[in-house]
Amino acid sequence: MIARALIALAVADFRERVRRPAYAVTLLAAVGLACLAVPSAASRWVILDVGGYRGVYTSAWVGTATALAGALWLTTGGFYVVRDAIGRDERTGVGPLLAATSLRTPTYLLGKFLSNFLVLASMVVVLAVTAPLMQLARGESFAVDPVALLLPFAVMTLPPLALSAAAAMLFETVPLLRSGVGNVVWFGVSMAFLLAGQGRNAPLGGFGVRQAAESMRVAMAEQGIGVRAREFSLGLTEVKEPLRTFRWDGFALDGAFLGGRLLFFVLALAVALLPVLWFGRFDPARRLLGASAAAEGAQTEGSAQEAAGRPIAEPQAPAVFGAVPASVARLGRVFPFWRLLTGELRILAQGISRWWWLAAAGVTVAGFVAPEPTMLLPLAWVWPVLIWSRLGTQRVEHGLDGLLGAYPTPSKGLLAEWAAGVVLTAVTGVAPLVRMAVAADWPGAGAWAGGTLLVPSLALALGVACRTHRVFQVVYLGVWYLAVNGVAAVDYMGVVRSGGLPAGPSPLAVAAVALVLVGAALAVRTARHATR
C-alpha cells in the first residue's frame, strides 16, 4: 500500500512537471550539453582534455565524455530545475489537502524525491539518446556499442544526480534555504563537490574521473603518448590548438567503484528522509501552535514594556536608504523620473539586513587596499545577486502585477527599475573604479562601465520574461563562475587580462547587449500591458 502511494505520488508529480514549457527548455539544454561534450575536430572549446589529446570518437569515448559532462553540469544545474516541488504544493493548496489524508511524511518526502530524480533522469536519457547521434555525426567511428555508450551514464551521471534531487528536498524544508539564499549556498556547495569529485581520493569514487583517467593514461602509454595525472581536465575550456587523438576503448569496472555508486543512492535516500525530523507536511495544527506561541511571546514582551513605562514600538517597514531629504523631494517634484528612481531604490533595497550592508562596506574598503584594482570586483559583483534578482519579479511575486498593470506608461517604471539596479551595481563596485581611474586604466574602467550596465539589464530581462527570481540567480552565477575562472569570452567585468588589458568583449559590445536586454524587457512588459 505504501509503495503504491509512493509511486502514484511520484508519477503524478512527474507528469505535472513535464507538461510545462520549462521542461522542454531543459531537455533542449541537455541536447546542447551533448553537443558541447563532442565538439568538432577543429574546435578549440572542449570539455574533456587529456594533456592536449582526446579519444577518437568511438562509443566508449563519446559515452564517457557526455556522461562526465552531464555529471559536471547537471549536478549543479539540476538542483535549480527540480527545486520548488514542496513550495508549489504549498502555493497551490495541494499541501493542506495532502495533510488531511493518511499519507505519511516519509512517503510524501520519498515521493517528491523520486519525482525530482525522474526529472533529472529524463535529462540523462536525452543525453544518452543524443550521444550516438553525435558519434555518427562526427564521422570518426560508425560502430555503435550500446554497452560502452550507455554504461557511463548509469555509473557516472545518475548517482550524483540522486544527491542533487535529495538536496533540493532538504533545502525546501529549511526556512532560510528555501529563499534565494539557498540558491547561492547550493552553488558554492556544488562547486566544492565538483572539485572534490574529480580528485584521486574523491569520496565514494566521485564522478569516476580517476578510473577513466587511469585507463586513458594506460591506453596512451601503449600508444607511445605520455601524460601526467594533473593534465586531465574536465570542464569547458579553450585550448590553443585542436586536440590530437588517441584510441581508447573504455575502462573496466571493479567492485569497489560499483559499491561507491550504490552508496550514492543510499546517501541520497538518507538526505531526502532527513527532514522527517522537522517537516510538518503542511499540518495546520503545527502552524497554529507556532503562531499562538509567537503571539503569546509578543504579548508578554509588550506587557513587560508597558510595566517598565516604555511605549511599545510600532512595527515599521525597513527604510534602508532613510528618509528622503527635503532637497531631494523638491528635485523629485521638478523631475518626475527622479521620484520614480528613488522609489525603485527603496523598493529594491527593502528589508535588507544591516549585516548585508556591513559586509558590502567591508568588501568596498578591501577593494581600496587590495594589491590589484580588480581583485575584489568579482566578490563585490556576486554579493548583491539576491537583490539583483528582484528586478522585474517583485511585482509578480508580491501579487501587485494587476494593480501596477493599470499604470498608463509602464516604460517609465521599468526604466526606473533598471536605473535603480545600475545604481546598486555601481555603488557595490565603486572601489575598483576609483583605483582604475587613479591608475589611468581607462580600458579597465570601460569594462567596468559595461558590466555595470549588463548585470541589471540581464536581471531585468530574465525577471520580466520568466517572472521568477531563480532564473537570473542560476544564469548569473554560471556566467560569473566562468569569468572568474578565466573564460575571457564571457568576462563582463574586465578581470581577465592579457598584456595588462581586459581580454574580454569590448565594453561597447557589452553595453549594446545590455541595451538589447532592456529593450527586450520593455517589449515583453508592453505586450503584456497591451493585452490586459
TrEMBL record:
Keyword Transmembrane: yes
Transmembrane feature ranges: 21-41, 61-82, 113-137, 149-171, 180-197, 256-279, 355-370, 446-465, 474-495, 507-524
Keyword Transmembrane attached: yes
Keyword annotations from UniProtKB, A to Z: Membrane, Transmembrane, Transmembrane helix
Domain of life: Bacteria
Protein name per its UniProtKB record: ABC transporter permease
Organism: Microtetraspora malaysiensis
